[in-house]
C-alpha cells in the first residue's frame, strides 16, 4: 500500500445522490398489503415500490389534502 494517494483528478461519486437511509415507519396493514400485491404483480420488492412512489410524489411536488 502506498503511504499516500493523490485523488486530485478523481471523479465525483455518481451514486452519492442515490444514497439511502434506513428508517422505521408505522404503516397501515392495508397499505402494506397493497404494495405487497403490487410487488407480486410486478416482481419489484415492495419496499422499492414504496420508495419509488414517495420519490415520484416528491418530484411532482404533491401535497397532502386532509378531508
UniProtKB/TrEMBL annotation:
It comes from the Bacteria. Pfam families: BrnA_antitoxin. This is Antitoxin. The lineage of its organism: Bacteria, Bacillati, Actinomycetota, Coriobacteriia, Eggerthellales.
Amino acid at each position: 500500500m502506498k503511504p499516500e494517494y493523490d485523488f486530485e483528478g478523481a471523479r465525483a461519486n455518481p451514486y452519492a445522490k442515490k444514497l439511502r437511509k434506513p428508517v422505521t415507519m408505522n404503516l397501515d396493514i392495508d397499505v402494506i398489503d397493497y404494495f405487497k400485491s403490487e410487488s407480486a404483480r410486478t416482481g419489484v420488492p415492495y419496499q422499492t415500490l414504496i420508495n419509488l412512489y414517495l420519490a415520484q410524489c416528491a418530484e411532482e411536488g404533491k401535497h397532502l389534502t386532509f378531508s
